[in-house]
UniProtKB/TrEMBL annotation:
Residues noted as binding Ca(2+) 1 in the record, renumbered to the chain: D71, G86, D88, S90
EC number(s) given by UniProt: 1.11.1.-
Disulfide bridge partners, by residue number: C26-C39, C57-C140, C264-C332
Native organism: Schizopora paradoxa
Record protein name field: Peroxidase
Pfam families documented for this protein: peroxidase, Peroxidase_ext
Length: 363
């Protein structure tokens, strides 16, 4: 009898435990969730994919990722609360003020991509910005799946102007600014790991719509002075150095890749897909909650809503066609990987790629 009673209690406990994890049907009749509160984010993800990203990796994804960083980095441990609340959506709530910062040039386009969704979904600007970035990058081959925590309050003040570094800043000043926001020099690398500058319509590397280490290789190559960017491609307010034909290189990235504080790690990432994925995942997880320490404990984990990302492209990093080891400018003495040369030039210099043959309209 005792054993029967014990097994009976265990069975009841097992049924109760299973009931606790029973998924609930969402009002849209499509999704189910472990928490009914997740349902709004399932609907928001669907809307982002259909109305903003169109289920492809294109400019809208680049802009969403840049917006998530620009909003979050407006934070300072040194200056405290008066500097801004970090990843709190203030770049939308106080758009007029924050767009006065030269570093936010062109960010209004990214804001307009998603701001209209605040009228349709009961989410805060801070949650929308970080969620849009996490959803958008799942369309790009190779990106890791990010967690998503919701519960950022509406910003009460704009971020202090001048907290976002610009390309012509001294590299050590850039590192110091990032450290003041809670990031190490190596974590700074991930800021441009969707290598396309939508402000000037020029790619940073030959595979701008794929998450790979081509960018880290190509920044280390000597520039092609015989093929400068075409007229109209470079904005004077976004300083660059000469890069490969048809590419764009920020002065800050050139300096970071050659700084004694960062050059060896930069070089280490060449042809390291796993390292790239892990590093980006961890850095973006920090970006998403910068300045939100007081609220993290009360945030709800809605990571189940983030779509499964497109798998990585099964391709090693290669020297772009017409280049090779002789063009490398290495300032770190660690061994450099042996890489093959590409058989094609990669990203064209005049025509943007059209994934799946269906280009969304430029915005």
């Amino acid at each position: 009898m005792g054993y029967k009673l014990l097994f009976g209690l265990l069975a009841v406990a097992g049924m109760a435990s299973a009931a606790n994890y029973k998924r609930v049907a969402c009002p849209d009749g499509i999704h189910t969730a472990t928490n009914a509160a997740c349902c709004i984010f399932f609907s928001l993800a669907d809307e982002l994919q259909s109305s903003v990203f169109q289920n492809i990796c294109f400019e809208q994804v680049h802009r969403a990722l840049r917006l998530s960083f620009q909003d979050a980095i407006g934070f300072s441990f040194m200056d405290g609360p008066k500097a801004g609340g970090g990843a709190d959506g203030s770049i939308i709530t106080f758009e007029t003020t924050e767009l006065k910062d030269p570093a936010n040039m062109g960010i209004d386009i990214a804001i307009n991509d998603t701001k209209f969704l605040l009228q349709k979904f009961n989410v805060t600007p801070g949650d929308l910005i970080q969620f849009a970035a996490a959803v958008g990058i799942t369309n790009c081959p190779g990106y890791p799946r990010q967690e998503f925590l919701a519960g950022r309050p509406v910003a009460v003040a704009p971020a202090q102007l001048g907290l976002i570094s610009i390309p012509q800043d001294n590299v050590d000043d850039i590192f110091d600014r990032m450290e003041d926001a809670g990031f190490s020099p190596t974590e700074l690398y991930w800021a441009h790991e969707l290598p396309f500058d939508n402000r000037v319509q020029v790619p940073f590397d030959t595979t701008p719509f794929v998450f790979d280490s081509q960018y880290y290789l190509e920044v280390l190559l000597m520039g092609d002075e015989t093929h400068p960017p075409a007229q109209g491609q470079v904005d004077a307010q976004v300083p660059s150095v000469l890069a490969l034909s048809g590419e764009f290189r920020l002065q800050s990235d050139f300096a970071i890749s050659r700084s004694p504080r960062s050059n060896c790690f930069w070089q280490f990432l060449v042809n390291d897909q796993f390292g790239l994925q892990q590093g980006f995942h961890d850095a973006m997880a920090k970006v998403a909650i910068v300045g939100q320490d007081a609220y993290v404990s009360g945030m709800i984990d809605y990571s189940e809503v983030i779509p499964m990302p497109v798998p990585p492209v099964n391709k090693s990093t290669t020297f772009p066609a017409g280049t090779g080891p002789n063009l490398l400018e290495l300032s770190c003495n660690s061994p450099f990987p042996s890489l093959a040369a590409a058989s094609d030039p990669g990203f064209p210099t005049t025509i943007l790629p059209c994934p799946q043959g269906d280009c969304p309209a430029m915005r």
